[in-house]
Design goal:
Elements (H helix, E strand, L loop, with lengths): L2 H17 L1 E5 L6 H5 L6 E5 L4 H13 L6 E6 L7 H6 L3 H6 L1 E3 L7 H8 L4 H10 L5 H6 L7 H7 L4 H9 L3 H9 L4 H14 L10 H20 L19 H13 L4 H12 L6 H4 L15 H14 L3 H11 L8 H26 L7 H28 L6 H32 L12 H10 L6 E6 L4 H10 L4 E9 L6 H6 L5 H4 E6 L2 E6 L2 E2 L3 H12 L3 E5 H6 L10 E6 L1 H8 L4 H21 L4 E5 L5 E2 L14 E6 L3 E6 L5 E5 L11 E5 L11 E2 L5 H4 E9 L12 E4 L6 E2 L5 E6 L11 E8 L5 E5 L11 E4 L3 E9 L6 E7 L6 E9 L4
Helix pairs in contact: 9-12, 13-14, 14-15, 17-18, 17-19, 17-21, 18-19, 19-20, 19-21, 20-21, 28-29
Length: about 850
């Protein structure tokens, strides 16, 4: 391709096609003819070099006809206007504003265009420009004429110098064998000449084997890119390392980008870069320890720390644009596939998402303050999404192995304060409306009416089988996430319900029983709260299940969620109401709140398995309900607790009191009946703020807040079971091109869903990825990330897709294990991979 063709096809036409209008400024009249030659029936070229007035009229007419003719190029033989004053004088500046201009910055200088067009001959081009700053097209086209490397071209079966260099860096097996077969080593002298002319590399080795030459070429190439990208001077320890001159920079960067981005050579690039960076080679981490900014390119893996530090700095300075730019570039980085790196970047991404969402919600909040109902609408539509992002951030923080890093600690503190600021504002509004309007909200579904309004009507139809899943601590945003995962089980509807106060398990679960809306009362017994329906105490699971058994007799059965999923027995057909109980999430948050967000997926998976089993057992409906929500209080500060109000109070959990007393600035006190509480207590109250009567508690429920009191109800009309005649999806697992040992606790598995006539290209395949030891115990799970849903840990892929998924191994496990890609509903294995650990530490 000539330099003229290169400028037309690679520079001007792409911009013209992207913007429809392009103004070419050319005071040297270098591009006049090539611009005129771009005219076609669909592309008008206006030449302003002939007559300024006529060209203005022609350009204006062409712009008005831009809908008829797709493109307009205006050629102006003058310098492009730079200042606002110059643009006001220039009659053609308006066309540049409508589209694009050329030249546009240093990248469009004639020298740079020539270097791009002839990467192989950067040294020669710079020499020519040093002698003549305006060489003709013919001079540029003549560069390299007649020069070739016949032996290398024949052996490697490539033509250009850049392709020869690429082949010598990463030869295919056939190319490698061809080099070995040349017993006269006639290609070596050509290679030395090529290295010197194209890169400025004078080989130091006297060896003549491909591996010897390749070692020096790789070292020179990677270190040169590092030098070009470094904003400041080289560290003293690295000044003696050979590197290319500036004229070779375009070719150096071209080759490095190609080696990094080509899937065939990416692994080789990583291996070479890691080796060269190490202590036995350049020891670059130590040499560059004092340098904060290493440049945007990440030639070596240690440079990622510099980029990460820049991203953290941008985050802490609220420079969201800079942060987004860095995060977007991460997706293209060759080092993004390292599991340990992913962990830190995912945490930062989750932090950015949460802070952005908090900022957006804080701006919108004033529009929803006028009533309790409007605040509830805002929570259901927007604030619950903030809660989801907060949970995902805390999950990422809990999954992060390198928790001691100062950078990460500062990010966590900043994010938690931002979230706390928003939720404190929302809580203040919630309490203000609670004082005026009471609880539960008028005209909305109270949890205490849920059984009578949703479950009982279904049971009135003879033979209709209904399952009621009572899932402890399923807050509203989790209900939304769960609903999205259950669409394959049938017709799924989600609505908000409003929990019974106080939001503790005995009261909340009792409120989900028949008749609770009219008959539930709270009595004082042995200095504790006892929920009752009539004369039936409901403090325990057994008591609550006995009430249902008395009402429905043999039509009723109950079981734990874990037992139901694992059990192989069938229920008698007479059973029409099956209650399935789960308290794992509440228990996890109570006992280990830091790890609990990562364990939610276990309960979700069991629910999905249970619904599949219910379908096979002939159940028609499933209703998922909960007793209360929760608030994650991760921004715990010293002295962050509330003093109980004066009076005669019975403390209920850590955020609610029943009895009688006096309100104060820190505590809300209202008549119990105004809060929907009947029984022995005249008044009820709790902290106005999102704090507790005891300090240091990270998991809140029991009190009154949006997160604790607004809960989901998921009503599912189960689909009928149909025999599937098609085969299972073609799912395959690969680790590091067939490696059998993992050297990190965050290995990345390559997961592929194949294409075929059996599956629609529009239907995604849900996959659960787990590692099992010899006894079948789960010792590793898919780590939440770009392709892994944080709530369910499922991967959803369309046929024809290949992704990398990080597997988070248990810290205590070592030995042989099997990675399995499973059907999340049936737990059938799609594909498995036998591996073992080989940790160095």
């Amino acid at each position: 391709m000539t330099i003229r063709e290169f400028i037309q096809q690679e520079i001007l036409l792409p911009r013209l096609q992207a913007s429809s209008v392009l103004v070419v400024y050319d005071p040297a009249r270098r591009y006049h003819e090539l611009c005129l030659d771009l005219a076609t029936p669909d592309r008008q070229v206006v030449d302003a070099s002939e007559s300024s007035i006529e060209s203005r009229e022609g350009a204006l007419a062409a712009l008005q006809r831009i809908g008829q003719r797709n493109e307009l190029l205006v050629y102006v033989p003058a310098k492009a206007p730079l200042t606002d004053e110059e643009k006001q004088i220039d009659p053609f500046a308006i066309y540049g504003a409508c589209g694009a201009i050329f030249p546009d910055g240093d990248r469009d200088e004639y020298l740079h265009l020539c270097l791009k067009a002839k990467l192989d001959y950067a040294t020669d081009i710079r020499r020519i420009f040093a002698e003549n700053p305006n060489p003709s097209f013919a001079v540029i086209d003549a560069i390299g004429g007649g020069v070739g490397w016949p032996v290398l071209q024949t052996l490697l079966q490539v033509e250009s110098a850049r392709d020869i260099l690429f082949a010598l860096l990463a030869p295919a097996e056939a190319q490698k064998e061809a080099l070995k077969a040349d017993t006269l080593d006639s290609w070596v002298s050509e290679a030395k000449t090529l290295f010197a002319s194209a890169l400025g590399l004078k080989l130091m080795t006297r060896g003549k084997s491909w591996s010897t030459l390749a070692d020096e070429l790789w070292r020179f190439l990677l270190f040169s890119e590092f030098v070009f990208d470094l904003p400041g001077p080289l560290p003293e320890a690295l000044t003696s390392v050979p590197h290319a001159q500036p004229e070779a920079q375009p070719l150096i960067e071209y080759l490095c980008d190609l080696l990094r981005n080509d899937q065939r050579t990416q692994a080789l690039y990583i291996e070479r870069a890691e080796r060269l960076e190490g202590k036995d080679e350049l020891n670059m981490r130590a040499a560059c320890a004092g340098i904060a900014d290493l440049g945007p390119r990440e030639t070596f893996p240690f440079e990622e720390r510099s980029v990460f530090a820049q991203a953290v700095d941008a985050f802490q300075r609220d420079n969201i644009d800079k942060l987004r730019q860095v995060l977007n570039n991460r997706e293209k980085s060759v080092w993004s596939g390292r599991g340990e790196s992913q962990s830190q970047w995912q945490l930062l991404q989750a932090a950015a998402n949460l802070v952005q969402s908090c900022d957006d919600a804080e701006r919108q909040l004033p529009d929803y303050t006028r009533s309790q109902d409007s605040l509830i609408v805002f929570y259901i539509g927007t604030l619950r999404e903030v809660d989801r992002l907060q949970r995902e951030f805390e999950q990422a923080a809990g999954d992060h192995y390198l928790d001691a890093e100062d950078q990460i600690a500062k990010v966590k503190m900043q994010v938690r304060r931002v979230y706390r600021r928003l939720t404190d504002r929302a809580q203040e509004l919630f309490i203000r409306h609670l004082e005026k309007s009471g609880w539960p909200p008028t005209g909305r579904l109270a949890n205490a009416d849920l059984f009578d309004k949703i479950v009982a009507p279904k049971l009135q139809e003879s033979g209709r089988r209904v399952a009621l899943l009572l899932v402890d601590a399923l807050r509203y945003e989790l209900g939304v996430a769960l609903q999205q995962q259950l669409s394959s089980e049938g017709q799924v509807e989600l609505q908000a319900a409003f929990a019974q106060l106080p939001t503790i398990t005995p009261v909340g679960m009792a409120s989900l029983l028949p008749g609770a809306g009219q008959g539930l009362k709270l009595v004082r017994k042995d200095n504790s709260v006892l929920p009752m329906l009539g004369d039936q105490p409901l403090a325990t699971v057994a008591q609550r299940m006995d009430l249902l058994r008395k009402r429905y007799g043999q039509r009723f059965a109950e079981t734990k969620l874990t037992d139901f999923v694992r059990g192989k027995h069938t229920l008698p057909e007479i059973v029409e109401l099956l209650v399935i109980r789960s308290n794992e999430m509440d228990s996890d948050f109570e006992s280990n709140p830091e790890a609990a967000p990562s364990l939610i997926s276990r309960t979700f998976q069991q629910i999905r398995n249970a619904l599949h089993k219910l379908r096979t057992l002939g159940f028609h409906d499933a209703v998922i309900a909960t007793d209360h929500g929760f608030y994650l209080n991760t921004a715990v500060e010293a002295g962050d607790k509330c003093t109980k109000p004066a009076g005669n109070w019975l403390a209920v959990h850590d955020r609610f009191v029943l009895g009688a007393g006096i309100a104060d600035a820190a505590n809300l006190i209202l008549p119990a009946e105004q809060l929907g509480i009947r029984g022995d207590f005249s008044e009820a109250g709790g902290p106005r703020s999102l704090i507790a009567y005891q300090g240091g508690i990270p998991y809140f429920h029991g009190g009154a807040s949006l997160q604790e009191t607004i809960v989901p109800v998921i009503d599912i009309r189960l689909a009928t079971v149909e025999d599937k005649l098609s085969k299972q999806p073609m799912v395959t697992l690969v680790y590091k091109r067939g490696a059998k040992r993992i050297t990190t606790r965050l290995p990345i598995m390559e997961l592929t869903v194949g294409t075929g006539d059996l599956f629609s290209q529009e239907a995604a395949v849900d996959i659960m990825l787990e590692a099992h030891d010899k006894q079948g115990k789960v010792v590793g799970e898919a780590k939440p990330g770009e392709h892994v849903n944080p709530a369910t840990r499922l991967i959803s892929l369309y046929p024809g897709t290949t992704v990398g998924v990080t597997l988070k191994m248990d810290l205590e496990f070592e030995g042989k294990f099997t990675v399995k890609a499973l059907d999340p509903t049936t737990l059938k294995t799609y594909h498995k991979l036998d591996l073992e650990t080989d940790y160095t530490v």
